[in-house]
Amino acid sequence: MTRHSYTRSDKSLIGNGKTILDTSTEFVQKIMAVNLSSHFVLIREFLPGMLEAKKGHVVSLASMASFVSAPGLVDYCVTKVGVLALHEGE
Predict the structure, then answer these.
(1) Cα–Cα–Cα angle for 89, 55, 66, nearest 5°?
(2) Which member of 37, 39, 48, 71 has the greatest number of CB atoms within 10 A?
């Protein structure tokens, strides 16, 4: 039996503390890729094996930022709302 394990430290999550007007398009694309799109990629990678084995868990960290947004953290909070919606919609 093959076991897959993936862990990710909070240190890999990114935010910038800037307003929307001061945030570059490049940074928005990067934060979406790191904090949100990566969940889709990993679920697609590991879910087939979990379904085949008829066991497994998908766990992600969304944080309180999925419920409360703050000035300078809107970009980060948007990604956390997306993670929450992803798992509620599974």
Answers:
(1) 30
(2) 39
pTM of structure: 0.75
Q: Which residue has the tokens 């599974």?
A: 90
| CA-closest candidate to residue 77, choices 23, 7, 9 | 23
Q: Write down the domain spans for the chain.
A: 21-88
90, 58 Cβ separation under 8 angstroms: yes
pLDDT digits (tens, 9 = 90+) for 47-77: 999 999 999 999 888 889 899 988 888 999 9
* Residues 36, 37, 41: CA angle, nearest 5 degrees: 130
